[in-house]
Specification:
Strand content: 15-25%
Strand order of the largest sheet: 1-2-3
Mean pLDDT: 77
Radius of gyration: 17 Å
Number of strands: 3
Order of helices and strands: EEEHHH
Length: 103
């Protein structure tokens, strides 16, 4: 698998004509990751899509501990046998919240 541009990524704002939301690495020397089309606007889906794209590196990192367990878990009781920490769960919850909640 090839490497992606390292995070953190963030929503940088809209283009001058407001038709695209820019997602990149930072404000000072932005490296553009994506232009998210906001036309046609359907309940701010462009904003939600941009937040999800910006959260991708954090989501990937936060969910890795869980993904490693999936092949080994056959039941809910099996979940208690594996070393997922409270910190892992909090990082996953924070990454999901960043993708879902407007700043």
């Amino acid at each position: 698998m090839s490497e992606h541009t390292p995070g953190p990524w963030r929503v940088l704002g809209t283009t001058a004509n407001g038709a695209w939301i820019k997602v990149g690495t930072n404000d000072l020397a932005p490296f553009l990751i994506a232009n998210v089309n906001v036309w046609p606007v359907v309940e701010n889906d462009g904003d939600a899509n941009a937040r999800l794209i910006a959260a991708a590196p954090n989501l990937l990192e936060a969910l890795r501990p869980f993904a490693a367990l999936i092949p080994q878990v056959a039941s809910l009781d099996d979940c208690l046998k594996f070393p997922v920490t409270v910190g892992d769960i909090r990082r996953a919850a924070a990454a999901i919240a960043a993708a879902e909640v407007a700043p």
